[in-house]
Structures are given as structure tokens and as C-alpha cells.
């Protein structure tokens, strides 16, 4: 006796397993930091979102993004209230991470942090910098000795916009930030994107941001494979966001 096609289809649907996507809580920074990331209307956006979504779509994970202030993000990560943290770096808060088996991915996003000044001060060296501004949570690594020695006074603020206004009005001699983030923020403020410029002759940091996890080392391994095997796709995402 022939089996009807409709019956065959019903049997196949019955025996196929239902594959549920695993929900992963991704802790991300609440602060605006385009083109890397931003939170608008409660929605996480930017390069990091596009990169992580591309990985999740291919790997079968369902990422739920949890934007948090920088300090709370670290504490929630170490306490296991979020599964992943982005951005992260092995040097960041190393003392607080001691005793936790934090697994870091391969480099996920290139960045430069350095000194930005008004164009007329470009190339004038470090000697003119007495008041240096940076964002709360940032560590100006190349200038720690001068700051600790009292030669440079560090001013920190929660908002990048406040720092840029202070530097533009000469209330700060310079800011220590990411040049791409500064240019984007200046444009958002209606100011010329070159009203503060990066001085490459001064000490700066060229490095990468990483994805990290304590609870899911196997996910970090999968992410590393994605970065390697989908290198062209990753490069296209970076290009789209100007990175």
C-alpha cells in the first residue's frame, strides 16, 4: 500500500527534534561609544552588535544584550549575572578579576587611544599638557607616571561630550580618548569633526577589544573560529562602521 505524501510529511515533522536556541546574556556598556556601540531607546547598536549578531546567527545562540554602567558591568560579569562581556581586555581590572577563570577571545575590534588637542596645538609635545581629560573608567596608561608624579592633573567625566566641550573651550589642555569616537561625537554635537585632532607623535595605545566569558569558554572558542573562518564578513562589518 502506498503511503500518502501528506502522511509522510506529518511523520517527518513529528520525528524531527525541536532545536531551541540557547539564550546567552551579553553584558555591554551603557555609555555611548559609536562607532563601536551605543544604546538608543534601550536597543544596543553599532559595530559590536552587528558582529555579535552575525556570530550568534551562525552558531545557534540567542543573545540578549544587557546594557550596564561600566563598573556594574564588571561586577555583574564576575558574579555570573551576565554570561559574556564586551568590550573587555586582559589588562582591565586585573586585580578584581584575580581568582576568576576569565577566557578572552581573539582580537575582536581594533582601537587607538591617545591624546587629542586643538589643531593649533598639534605637534607641540607633552610639556604643554597640564590638565588632561578622560572618561570615567578609562586609564591613560602612557601617562600614569606623569599623573602619579603630579605633573599632569587628570580630570574625569561621565560623558565624552562634556570633555570635548572643555577641551574646545581651553578648560582642558587635551583629552585622552579614541579618535574615531571623538570624531563621531563631535559630528553629533554639530561641531567640525577635526576641531580636535589626534597627535600620533605623543604616546598612545594601539590594541584590540575582546569578548570574554567565565561561564562559557566553549562559546569563546566558537567565536574565535567564526573570526577566522568568516574573516571577510568581519572585515566588511568593520568597514561599514568605519573601523
UniProtKB/TrEMBL annotation:
Residues 1-20 form the signal peptide. InterPro entries: Solute-binding_3/MltF_N. Keywords: Signal. The keyword Signal applies. Residues 24-212 form the Solute-binding protein family 3/N-terminal domain. It holds the Pfam family SBP_bac_3. Belongs to the bacterial solute-binding protein 3 family. This is ABC-type amino acid transport substrate-binding protein.
Amino acid at each position: 500500500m502506498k503511503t500518502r505524501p501528506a502522511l509522510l510529511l506529518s511523520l517527518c515533522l513529528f520525528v524531527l527534534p525541536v532545536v531551541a536556541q540557547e539564550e546567552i546574556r551579553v553584558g555591554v556598556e551603557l555609555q555611548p561609544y559609536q562607532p563601536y556601540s551605543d544604546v538608543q531607546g534601550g536597543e544596543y547598536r553599532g559595530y559590536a552588535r552587528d558582529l555579535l549578531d552575525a556570530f550568534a546567527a551562525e552558531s545557534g545562540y540567542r543573545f540578549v544584550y544587557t546594557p550596564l554602567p561600566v563598573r556594574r558591568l564588571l561586577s555583574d560579569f564576575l558574579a555570573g549575572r551576565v554570561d559574556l562581556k564586551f568590550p573587555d581586555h586582559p589588562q582591565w581590572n586585573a586585580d578584581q578579576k584575580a581568582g576568576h577563570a576569565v577566557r578572552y577571545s581573539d582580537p575582536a575590534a581594533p582601537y587607538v587611544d591617545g591624546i587629542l588637542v586643538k589643531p593649533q596645538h598639534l605637534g607641540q609635545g607633552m610639556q604643554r599638557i597640564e590638565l588632561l581629560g578622560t572618561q570615567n573608567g578609562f586609564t591613560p596608561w602612557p601617562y600614569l607616571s606623569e599623573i602619579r608624579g603630579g605633573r599632569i592633573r587628570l580630570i574625569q567625566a561621565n560623558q565624552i561630550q562634556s570633555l570635548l566641550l572643555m577641551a574646545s573651550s581651553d578648560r582642558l589642555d587635551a583629552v585622552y580618548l579614541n579618535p574615531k569616537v571623538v570624531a563621531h561625537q563631535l559630528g553629533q554635537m554639530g561641531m567640525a569633526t577635526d576641531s580636535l585632532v589626534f597627535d600620533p607623535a605623543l604616546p598612545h595605545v594601539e590594541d584590540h577589544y575582546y569578548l570574554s566569558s567565565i561561564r562559557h569558554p566553549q562559546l569563546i572558542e566558537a567565536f574565535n573560529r567564526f573570526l577566522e573562518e568568516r574573516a571577510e564578513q568581519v572585515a566588511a562589518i568593520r568597514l561599514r562602521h568605519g573601523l
